[in-house]
Amino acid sequence: MIKTTYLRRHYINESIQNFEIGERILEIGSGKKFRYFQSSITINIDVSTEPDCICNAESMPFKDECFDTILCNEVLEHTNNPQALIDECHRILCSGGKMLLRVPFCFEIHDTRDYWRFTKIQFRKNV
């Protein structure tokens, strides 16, 4: 039997493998266990994930334009203010930098802080 979590993880891994990354990488909602790149900086509010920095992604302690690449995989739906997270990413992403942002759409509620589902239409309207 194929579980939806395996399919999700497959497509996340595939999108990351095909994504052009820079030298300075931030992984939002990540940590030691879920890090994709050894050279990245990881942030999370969950201490148990052993992130490099414990902080809320809606207010990150980084200087403006300090990352070439930002990965934000299935985190946006867990924020109280998704626009604040996107604004922060815009602030810390270098000019010409790239961000890979993935959110679930047709997936079960998977955490006590799973607040939102997004559509392509909504992203195009607000980004």
- Give me the Rg, rounded: 14 Å
Residue share in β-strands: 15-25%
* Domain module count: 1
Share of helical residues: 25-40%
What is the fold-level CATH name, i.e. the topology?
A: Rossmann fold
Classify the secondary structure makeup into a structural class.
alpha/beta
- The number of distinct helices, counting runs of at least 4 residues, comes to 3
Low-pLDDT stretches:
none
Supply the CATH class: Alpha Beta
With strands numbered from the N-terminus, the spatial order across the biggest sheet is: 3-2-1-4-5
Q: How does the major sheet shape up?
A: 5 strands, parallel
Instruction: Please give the CATH architecture.
Output: 3-Layer(aba) Sandwich
* Global shape: globular
Number of strands: 5
- How many angstroms separate the termini? 38 Å
Task: Report what the structure shows.
The protein has a single domain (21-126), classed as 3-Layer(aba) Sandwich (Rossmann fold). Helix 2 (82-92) links the parallel strand 4 and strand 5 (93-102). It starts with a helix and ends with a helix. With 127 residues, the chain is of the alpha/beta class. The mean pLDDT is 86. The chain has helices at 4-17, 82-92, 120-126; strands spanning 25-28, 41-44, 53-54, 67-73, 93-102.
